[in-house]
Amino acid sequence: MEKVELKFLRITYSHTHAGAYALILAEVHGDRRLPIIIGGVEAQAIAIQVENIKPARPLTHDLFKNLSDTLGITLKEVIINDLVEGIFHAKLVLEQNGHEVEIDARSSDAIALALRFECPIFSYEFIMSAAGLKVEEGEEEKGEEEKAEKPERTERKGLKSASIEDLKEMLDQALSDEDYERASKLRDEIQRREQTN
User: Fold this and answer.
1) pLDDT tens track for 34-62
2) Which of 20, 23, 44, 73 is buried deepest, with most CB atoms within 10 A?
3) Domain boundaries of the chain, sorted by first residue
4) Helix spans in the chain (H)
5) pTM (2 decimals)?
6) Which CATH architecture does the domain made up of 3-131 adopt?
7) 37 close to 44: Cβ distance less than 8 angstroms
C-alpha cells in the first residue's frame, strides 16, 4: 500500500465535541490535512512534548521512551493504518537488535510517542482519500483579521436540509476557518449524497 508521510501541525479545541480536541496532521508532500479527534488527556500528553515542558516525574509516554532507550529499542515509524467507523487505528514499528516488530496503538498515543522519538509519521493513501481534507493554496496564510471580517455564515440550516451547493459552500468556509473537524463532517455528508444520487 502507498504510504503518505505526515507531520504534526497543531492541536485545536473541538467546537463540536465538548472537552475534546482535534489533532491536525499535515501531508508532508501535499496539501491535505488529517484531523483526528482526541481527548483532553491525550491532547495534554502531546502538548507537553510540543511545548517542551519537562514534568517533575515522567508521564506515561516519557516512561515508555526512557524504558525503550534503556533497553535499546528504537521507534522507527508510526503508521496510522486503519479507519473503522470514524476511529483511527495506528501501529508502532519498533526495532531492537535488528529485530523489527509492529505493535497496535491508539493514534493519539502513537503520535505522542512519534514526537518524543522524533520518528516519521505515515498513513495510507486510502485513509487520506477517505478522511483527508484538502487545503487550498494560500488558506493557511490568511490573517486573523481577514477571517474576522468574513460574515458569520448562517448555516443554521441543518446539514440534512441544506442543498449540496450550500454544503460545498459551508465546506469551503470551514476549510478557510481551519475548522477541520466541521469540514470532515461536511465532506462526509457531501460524499454520502453523491453516492446515493
Assistant:
1) 999 999 889 999 998 998 888 888 899 99
2) 23
3) 3-131, 141-196
4) 40-50, 60-71, 107-117, 125-131, 144-149, 164-176, 180-196
5) 0.71
6) Roll (3.10)
7) no
